[in-house]
Every structure is written in structure tokens, then in C-alpha cells.
Amino acid sequence: MNSFGRLFRIHIFGESHGESAGLVIDGCPAGLPLSVEDFLTDIERRKGGNHKGTTPRKEDDLPIFKSGIFNGHTTGAPITILFENKNTRSGDYEKQRAVPRPGHADFTAHAKYGGFEDFRGGGHFSGRLTVCMVAAGVIAKKLLGHIQVVSTILEIGGEADLEKGLQKAIDAKDSIGGIVECRVNGLPVGLGEHFFDSAESLISHAVFAIPAVKGIEFGAGFAAARMFGTEHNDAIEDASGKTRTNHAGGIVGGITNGNELVFRIAIKPTSSTPKEQQTWNWETNAIESFSVKGRHDLCIALRVPVVLEAVTAFTLVDLMLLEQRIGRIGPSFML
Amino acid sequence: MNSFGRLFRIHIFGESHGESAGLVIDGCPAGLPLSVEDFLTDIERRKGGNHKGTTPRKEDDLPIFKSGIFNGHTTGAPITILFENKNTRSGDYEKQRAVPRPGHADFTAHAKYGGFEDFRGGGHFSGRLTVCMVAAGVIAKKLLGHIQVVSTILEIGGEADLEKGLQKAIDAKDSIGGIVECRVNGLPVGLGEHFFDSAESLISHAVFAIPAVKGIEFGAGFAAARMFGTEHNDAIEDASGKTRTNHAGGIVGGITNGNELVFRIAIKPTSSTPKEQQTWNWETNAIESFSVKGRHDLCIALRVPVVLEAVTAFTLVDLMLLEQRIGRIGPSFML
Amino acid sequence: MNSFGRLFRIHIFGESHGESAGLVIDGCPAGLPLSVEDFLTDIERRKGGNHKGTTPRKEDDLPIFKSGIFNGHTTGAPITILFENKNTRSGDYEKQRAVPRPGHADFTAHAKYGGFEDFRGGGHFSGRLTVCMVAAGVIAKKLLGHIQVVSTILEIGGEADLEKGLQKAIDAKDSIGGIVECRVNGLPVGLGEHFFDSAESLISHAVFAIPAVKGIEFGAGFAAARMFGTEHNDAIEDASGKTRTNHAGGIVGGITNGNELVFRIAIKPTSSTPKEQQTWNWETNAIESFSVKGRHDLCIALRVPVVLEAVTAFTLVDLMLLEQRIGRIGPSFML
Amino acid sequence: MNSFGRLFRIHIFGESHGESAGLVIDGCPAGLPLSVEDFLTDIERRKGGNHKGTTPRKEDDLPIFKSGIFNGHTTGAPITILFENKNTRSGDYEKQRAVPRPGHADFTAHAKYGGFEDFRGGGHFSGRLTVCMVAAGVIAKKLLGHIQVVSTILEIGGEADLEKGLQKAIDAKDSIGGIVECRVNGLPVGLGEHFFDSAESLISHAVFAIPAVKGIEFGAGFAAARMFGTEHNDAIEDASGKTRTNHAGGIVGGITNGNELVFRIAIKPTSSTPKEQQTWNWETNAIESFSVKGRHDLCIALRVPVVLEAVTAFTLVDLMLLEQRIGRIGPSFML
């Protein structure tokens, strides 16, 4: 299912080179002011156009409101937003159909859907659909009010100096990965539950919906595995739950503890790379060399921060609604 | 909610020092042979009793079947299994109530449940409930038939030599963390969906339900962030989808690709440590030193492999049922 | 939430006088042939245009495929279909805003959504959205193959002669209700579960989503309350489960028994009626007389059969998928 | 799945002649006082022991708390309650196994679960599990506070004089059905949503989980199908939404309107009847006469009111939580 959330429920749909991509949000409180302008900054951020290393494809991705918005406010009914696809060049992709691209969903989608999958540009299995996540994130961030969700790139190709990392990829004529961090300030104590609905469970569930993510760690994360207990434990300092250190990353026992939420994700290198690769050919049943044509990012991680903010924000809105920290009607969502 | 799964649904309940811990499984196919003996090995593995560094508490955790099993087979109706709590010493914990232990859920549970939470030994917020996960895992592993789910400890306190890692903790009189890996062989191509129900999303959702997990990575994981695309991409070699390398860890585009599923998790050091720590006292509103009394593991990671196998197994059963790879009735679950 | 189904999941959205109405279907098997032509008959049936007593509004409701369909077949990805709204006359409704129409959702929607609801023509709370149900039904009926779902009107205004019933309404210049029956032949034994997921529970859940339904009964229904056990019990006659009578309506213990599924629903009279009524005015806080202007059906029951077939069909597809009676891939959905 | 509810989630399990029947409630707010005594009245009502026509089986059904209750209050963790089975006489049933009893789930359960179902006394497919619903109802009614849920029997065997109806059954040596009504006072405006989560959809979903229910109608129900619009529409009289009449039964557009919630259900005659019946024999493949031995109610409808109150109450608690009309923590559930 392409759905996520219990009370603030996101459904995404669409294809890279089909009619459109879009989303339906069920459970958004009524009375939130919403306009096309609210989306422009984050949609622009997702294009990653200011960086070298991102694809020049211009999508002019204006959100088209199809339901749930009236007189500039959400109505409480399902919100539907479409992004139409323009300027697509399917020809780039069709000739490669017999060759499942390594690192792409070509092979798995074909096996799962018996050849009926839309294979143009990855079809449904495309980073194109992250624009839907970003749109949901815009709405979620408005609902979160003063709670700030901020993602930044920590490193590209192992380099904290991002320009240096990108230059490495350009020099090698190869794609490259990166690490992105997300920090959230202003969260109340008490979001999430122990075990299956832990805050970590829900956030990681949403985060692994972003294509190319291969790892996540909260707080000290993998480094915690090498610490002693007295090093790792965060001493509580007052009645608000404030801790001296924050190795837990703001979640203890699956529940937010009122400190900064901190986690990092690993982004693999873009699967499409200008460099020659080998793969097996469905028609000839032989291994062959090929190289990916078309417009592709050298480093998809550059586009990830706004998507990561988005999935984090809508997961948190759901957790806030479950804890009744956001009202269901009218201006009560102002926290 | 303490539930997980769409078609093979696990519910866990109970407290560390209450009446019992237990589970209900909804959606288990009828006709699976099941006896108390099936559970003994995994329950014993969870106790971690053979290692130094695990708690000496003897639980004699025999599963008590309360529903859903008849004439030694599952009936298709909900399966309920209880584990009774014996040999508990609540006194160890009650006197510490005013002192929320760092790294434990004491503070967050109190804030969330308004002081009504069962605070004895962590109450519901206790590793005790992992016995319920293990029990569900026993059933799930039987359903998986020849698909092998195997977890191993990769390192303890940064040491691949586990004895050495444990000795480090014993010498420091402090607790310590570790890294655990899970590998699954024999999975079909096609489990999981793109985006929100990706195999990574569902597995990580389940895995972060295990207390003390702070990170997860699939295949190359965080190392992928430092690789070039041509290094990371796994070249497909034949019609079965077999790849030359396995940096993807067996999942591409959120869907299993028929190769070995591989992922690793980071376990933080046990929160309870014999060493003195500082925390804030609810009653005195002052920071004070304290040390945790009672029986505790120095390294909870030692108990994790069987729990990790369990949550992985029941997540995979759910994915297999969704893809109709396991029949709903009778002996057809034999794959 | 405007969603229904566990594996074949329907989401509907839209407003009567907004941009559009539409639906997303998640979980439709790949490989089902689908064209605009498949929808025309049922969409036409929903208009009820051949009967006197239905509104003359012409909607030209052509489905617009926005995702999930490629080369004339479903792809396995979410299917999105839009119906654009044309020829709406909002002016008819706006002047009545202060007057919550009796029998309509005007009052309850206002109370629930704090005045942010789209009030034009009922907004989201409109029979307009049944076109989305009908579209989902078209797809579901194709998936059901030889299983026939057929709804017929049993009576209008208490008359089995429908013309007579309608004439009664026309003469009285008032709206009128009716009773609609649904019969399904060809169902396998074993759909549904005891208790909360009984076939009756799921069907009635879906059926009460149709506006104006106020009752449902299966088989002998309310008449069963006046029968003796030996009268009501259906004697089983052979190994297929065929019964001599069918007072159970094809469901025993919440599970289909292989006989014809039979149930009836009660449709209240159209809330909008040309006759003068009384209601309370929000602005004046006084009770006043008013009459509904605009185009309205005298008997909404005339449009219900195709909607009832639709919700029944998609509920049954979900039940069939849960029992693995429909394959997930390719032509295997051909039963 | 034997689960119901989105935020206040009920899971039931067990068998008629197995170890036990029981339930898990997930999502119950913390801080509700709860003792065994709270359950006694409703459990006694369910036995129907004061009426002639109910089975003499004495169950002494004391609830055994297994989790989620501490110091006499709910803790916010899952609540598990067991009812142990005693005084069962399986021998009564085993000899009849080859003969699927008409009106029972014997045939459908066998077909669905391939012969692995527990067939003793109906096994999982037994009215025995309604004790679990009743227990959930006790908790739900406490949460509803001053909102009163009251069910009464309207008729037995077509007689409003219940003694007369029962005597009819006793004279005929046959079982008999009945009609039960439920009325709820004090509900706020705004529970339920249009379409798939309408209050009618959710209530009917829960109600058809009660064995033997074959119909439900809200307000005027089936009679509405024969009314004119001006007759049926309930004129709104003031800002609270109070209506002059209540043909809608307290729900308009799927949403509660603040008036009394009223609905009725049809209960078929008890399937087990002392009178001789015919059915087909699995072993001989011939039709034969048989009569049901053992202890059975002549009129199961007599036991239904308390079960109907229960499922109504827990459905309403879920709707109240969704609308944030019940707080998640501490004494705030006092409305």
C-alpha cells in the first residue's frame, strides 16, 4: 500500500512519465490556511537546481488542488493535490527495457508485476514521487507550528566539504552517496509508544519510503554500540526532562523525551551513473555492458533534505494527533 | 498500539513484574503443528544464560497455550500464549520510584501515562516483553519452512572477539553495547512494495520495537554513502536475479530481489549499570547520585539475536502472506 | 477516513461543486485490462436518467485516468481516476447557507468542521461522490469474473410497481424512499471471518457509506426474528454446502456458505424535496419555512442499485484477496 | 482478524470448550479505576439466567486481569482479561462431528480451516466469546461517563409480551428469535465521518460481529423507505441541533447530530433447537434426521441486550477518542 499514518494519512500515487504524480491526505484538521505559494520553496528545494550534480530537468511543479481546500483553507475532507508531468522524454528509456539497470527497481518490479509495470523512466518506481512527499510535508510543517524540522547534508562521498565531494564524483564520472541529518526542536514529551509504535519505528518506516535510503541511526546510533552505559546514558536535569547530553537522540523507550530529536540517514549513490556498467539482458540472456543515457543526478543525496523533513514532519503530525497535541477543528491546531 | 502486521498480526501485552506477559497472533494459517517443545530452544537462547554478562534471573518461561491450538495444530483462530511471571522481587524497584533512571522509560512513561504506569521493574516498558516476540518468531519461523533466518553478534563493545568485549565491561564495572547482524536465505523475489510498504520500512518498523536498538542498516548501509555508483550497484547475472555483489542487502526499490537479505542493528549499552550515575529526583527536585540495584545484564546485545530473528521472521511471514507465498489453509504453508 | 478495504483499498475524495471527485485504488492486481469504455454503462446507470424522478443534471462523467494504468492494463501501482465537475450552479446553494437543511449534513458538517467545510451543494457531503464508488465497482466487478453482483429495486414508496410509487411522489410534490436488493451468485465458501470481520460486518460497513441508507438485512433479515429455529435453519443438502432454503442469505457464522448472497437495504426519501419545510436559521436563531431550490431527485433510490453493486463488489474483492481467491499478478485473477 | 477499533482497539480470542476466552484492549486511557466488581452485573446479565428459555450452564465468569491494570487503575498499557472455561461437556458435541448443524458455522468453518478448527461446542465459532465483548463494554461504558447506552428487547417471536413469546417457543419445542433496540443519550454532535467511516458503518460493523444478528436499522429504518421526505426529515429546532422528530435515529450524513442515537437489530432464532431437523452427513454423504442434544437457549435474543450495549459502547469510545472527546491521560476521561 502506498499509504502511511494512522490519523494523518498520506496516500501517494503516480508515475515518472505517466500523466501525473499526486497525493491524497486524509485526516488533516479543518481550518488550516493553504495556498499554492506555501509549496513553492520546498518544491524548489527538492529540485536541487542550485547544486552542480543535480539533473537539469525543469518540472515547474506547481501543485494543483483537486479537493479538500475551499476559500483558502482546508475543509477537513480529503485533500488531493496533483503534479502534472511535462517535458518527459520516454524514448530515453524504452530502448533499454531488456536491460534491467543495476540498483534500480527494473528487475524486482518486473518480477512482482509480471511485466505490466509502467517501465518508462522507472514508472511508479521513481524518485518523481518524492514531490508528493514534499507536498505532504509542507502541510505537515504548517500544522507543526513552532516545532522546527530541519535537515542538512552532513557529507557527500565521505567529504564534509560538499563541493569537494561533488567534484570527486564529477572527476570520476560516477555517481556518489551521502549522509543527511534531521533535527527537530520543540517536540513535547510523550510521542510514540513502547514496542511496535515506538517513535523510532514510525519514523524509520516513513524514512525508508524515500528511495535510496539504506540506513538510519538515532542519537549516537551505531556509535552507541561501542560506548559504556555511563557514557551513553543521558542524565536528566530537571522536571522538563532536559538531559545533559543527548545520546538517545530525543527518544527513550520509544517515546519522545522533550529533548532535540536527532537522527541521520545513509543515502546510496544514485543508481544511474554515466559510467559503463554490466548487467544481464532479458532478451539475449547474456551479460552485457551498457551505460545509462538521459538526465540523472550525480548525487541524489542533494535532493534528500527537503524530502526527509517532509516524511519526518508528517510522521510527527500523526504522533501529535494521536496524543491530542493538535486539535481536530479550526484554529486549535495553533499549538 | 502494541500490534504489528497486516495479515499475520502480532499483539503483545504484559508487564515485567505483573501477572504475566503474553501475545495474541491473528491470521496464522490453520494446520501448523505446534507444541510447547517448539518454543524451548529459542526461549532458552533469549535468556542468554550461557554467557557471562547476562542476568541470572531464571524465568522457566514455558509458554501456556490459551487459545487457537487444538490437537497439536493451529486452528486458524487467534492464538494466545501466556508467560507467567515468577520469582520477581518488586522491592528492588519501588524504593527508586522518585528517581527516573537515565536511559530507561521511567521519565517518559510517567509523563505519558500521568503516573498510572506500572513502575515495577519497568512495568510494560521492559525487555521482559521480548519473550512474546520470541514466541511469535517461533511460529513465524515454522511457517517460513526452508527460508532460514539467522542472527549473529558481530561485535560487543567494539570487539569482534566477544569474550574480550565482555571482559572490558566487567573490568569497567559498566554495561556495554553491540552490533547484531541478521541474514535470511531463500526469500523469493517480490516481497515488499515501493515507498511506504518497502521491505526496509516494514523490517525497520519491527526492529525498532526491540528495546535498545538505535540504528539499522541494510547491505552496505552507511558505508554506501561513501561509495561510487559503479562500486555500489550489484550487477545482475541471470534470470533468477542473482547479483555478483550484494551491497543492496537483498532489497532493491523496496522489493526483495532474491539474493540474501542482510542487515545490521546497533544496540546501545544496557541502561542499568552497576556504576554510579547522576539523575534528577522528582521529590527533592535536586540532582543526585545513585546506582542501580537488582539483577541486570551487562550487555543486553547478547540476548538480542533470537529476538531479532523473531521480529524479522514475523515481518517476512506477513510479506509472504501479502504476496500469497503462504497458503491460508492446511499443509499448503509448506512452501 | 474515506478509505475502505484491507488489500483492495478504496480512497474517495472530492466535492459536489469543487474541482472534481475521484478515487485512488491501492492493491489492484496487475494485468487487468481497463479502458474508459468499461465505465460508461455503470456511470450511465448511476445517472438514473431514464426514470422520471431523477435530476436532469448532465455530468458527462468520463473517468480520467491519472495513474496506475499503462498500455490498457493495470500496473499494480495505485490507480487514480478523476471525474471533473462541470455545469455546476453554486448560486443555487450559497444563499441558503444560514439554513441547515433538514435531513442533510449541513448542520453536522458545520459543527464538526467549524464552518470550514465546503458548503456548496453539500460539498464533500454529497451523493456526487458515489460516482467514485461506481468507478471502483467497475474494476471490482471485472476482477470478480464470473461472480455476478446484481442489484434491483424492490419497491419505491412502498409500491412494488415502481411507476406507481414514483407517481405517488410526483402527485404529492414530495420525495420518496425505497428498498433495494443485492444478489451475488458464484461466491466460494469461506469468505469472511467470525466476529469482527464477518462478511455481514464488512458488507454493512461499506453499504452504510452510501448516503441515505438507513437499514440492511441479510437473508430473511428482520423476518427471521419472528421465525422458529426449524423454519429458519437452512438444511444442508450436499458436500458443496448447497442448502434447501436460503434464510441465512448465504452467510453462516460470518462466513459465506456457497449459496446465493442476498441482502436488502432501506433508502430514506431524498432529503431535498420541493415541498415547504421548517428549519432553524443560524443567523436569525428563529425557526423558518423554506423550500429547497435547485435540481434534485424525487427518489434517490433509483440511482442506488449500481452504487450498491459497486460497494458490494469491492468488498467481495477484498474478501477474495484475503482468502487468496484472486491472484496478485497477471492473468491469474481470471478465476 | 478478530479486532475492532482504531484508537480503542478490542481483540477477542478463545474457544467454547478450550482453555479460555479472553480479550486484549489496546488504547484504553490510563487512570480509569477498574475492579472485578465492575464486571459482575453485566456478566450476570449476559447469562440471561432469570429468564426461562436460557441455558442452565453456570459459568461463574469471573474476569482474570492479566495485564494493563495496576493499583486498581488502568495503566495505559494493553489490558488483558481472561475467562477460564469450566464445567464443559465436550462429549455432547464430538459424536455429532460428521453432521454439520444447520444454522451453525460447522460447515463453513470446516471448509475455511480445512478440518483443523476446534469443533468442540462450536470452538471459536461460539456465543461463548460474547463474554469478551461484554467485558470490553464494561470498560467502554465507564469511559463514556454520563453517556447512557441502554438496550432492551422489543419483541420475542413477534410478541411484545416477552413471556408470551417464550411460551410459544416452549409449546412448539422450538427455538425463537427477537428484536433488540439500543438507545444512547448524551452523545455530542460530530462523531463519525461521511462515507466509509460513518457512524452507521462503524456501529453496524461491530453489531454484525454478534452471532445471530441478521439485520440492523437506524431511526425509522426500513419504515423510512415508505415515507415522504417531509414526513421523514427531522426539523432542526435550535443551535444545539435538537430536532422535533428523530427519524434519522441521531445520525445525519454519517455524523451524530446530538439527538438520541436509536437503532434496532434482528436476532434469528437459536440455531440449536430441540426439534428434529435434517442435514447432510459428511461421512455417509446422505441426508439424515438429527436433533441437537446438550444445553441450549431457546431464545438467544434474551442474552443479547448486554452484548449490544457493549459493542455499541466500545464503538462510541473509539469515535469519541477520534474526535478527542476523551482525554488520553488521567482523569480527563471524565467528560
From TrEMBL, chains A, B, C, D:
A Pfam entry, by short name: Chorismate_synt
EC class: lyase
Reactions the enzyme catalyzes: 5-O-(1-carboxyvinyl)-3-phosphoshikimate = chorismate + phosphate
Binding note for cofactor: Reduced FMN (FMNH(2)).
Pathway the protein acts in: Metabolic intermediate biosynthesis; chorismate biosynthesis; chorismate from D-erythrose 4-phosphate and phosphoenolpyruvate: step 7/7
GO cellular component, one term: cytosol
Quaternary state and interactors: Homotetramer.
Protein name stated in the entry: Chorismate synthase
Organism, scientific name: Hydrobacter penzbergensis
